[in-house]
Amino acid sequence: LSERTEQFTDSVIRRMTRVANQYGAINLSQGFPDFDPPDELKAALKKVAEGSVHQYAVTWGAQNFRQALAEKQARFMGIPIDPETQIVVTCGSTEAMMAAMMTVCNPQDKVIVFSPFYENYAADAILSGAEPIYVPLKPPHFHFDANELEAAFAQHPKALILCNPSNPTGKVFSPDELRLIAGLAEKYDSFVIADEVYEHIIYEPYRHTYFAALPGMFERTISCSSLSKTYSITGWRLGYLIAPAYIIERAKKVHDFLTVGAASPLQEAAVTALRFENGYYKQLQKIYEEKRSLFLEGLKRLNLPFTVPQGAYYVMVDVSEFGCTDDLRFCEWLAREVGVAAVPGSAFFREDIRHLIRFHFAKKNETLEAALNRLESIR
Ligand code: GLN
User: Fold this and answer.
1) What's the gap in Å between 27 CA and the centre of ligand 1?
2) Residue ranges covered by each domain of the chain
3) Mean pLDDT score of the chain, rounded to an integer?
4) Which of 54, 86, 210, 270 has a CA between 20 and 30 Å from the CA of residue 349?
5) Which sequence ranges form a coiled-coil region, renumbered to this chain (predicted)?
6) How is 167-187 classified by DSSP, letter by letter?
7) Collapsing DSSP states into helix, strand and coil, what is residue 325?
8) What pLDDT does 322 receive?
9) 3-30+279-378: which CATH architecture?
């Protein structure tokens, strides 16, 4: 078998879901909602099922989907987006990130990855032949050191991967941090591959800054995102890349040969969501604000130290007081004996850090309350 696949370990995030199922634990590991998408969207899907959109769409995305997406993203990003030349619709942001890497990287090219990072980036690097340079985001505040970042850029990476708002830390990169990254990307002529799937899940007073919208950055940014988190439809697998035409022209081919296209009936139904008014996004923020408060208040009552997430729906909890030196075993114990599943932090860190675990709170309030009740037994 290929040397490439030999380097893979299986995804710890997905493994923890299997562990949760095995022990009947409440699954706060793999991040996805246990609540339904808006009724209007479900109704749209039902209508599509009865209609006649059941064959391939245009490989880079159905025209009406791209049109609606371009309008919605232009509204939020504050820059014009051409649905014909600047968008590729993919099978989730997972494919978008992979296609972005394959579009810009040659084997042995370097890519900067902040650590901790979302597991897939290491696999994306292996599959595209690139070599990651890790720059630490140091707990508990997850700041990076500007000199360390510049030292990484000095190795002339092809790209930097930026997950903002960040999984697993909940960090929202500040405008100053983003300007610093932009300056270095310009100075060392690197691309920025921005994973912005949590663009609409952000907590007051923080604001999301689209990297592509920073002065001069559109030309070197590949923005990857998806509908999964914004409309609670992780199973629909609808994602996309937005980039300048000269990049998209290549990305269209990578995507075509990888998957031909995202499911056409689902694209058709999702147009309904892309046309939601601003009120929908305000409501989404309110729902997550409430979930965050509920869960963080519970962690405080349990006296568990954590880093307050500024965006996304994850929280990193410090479990060192339990004598935890092996977070994987701790999470297995937690799922088996306490009945709550979390992801061991080491799944995200390049450095040897084993005292953090990640919970997600994209769950019904009653699910979060039940998980907190179970967690009381560890005290
Ligand atoms: N993004 C989610 C997480 O980090 C789910 C990832 C996945 O399994 N596709 O948990």
Assistant:
1) 12
2) 3-30+279-378, 53-276
3) 97
4) 210
5) none
6) TTT-----HHHHHHHHHHHHH
7) coil
8) 87
9) Alpha-Beta Complex (3.90)
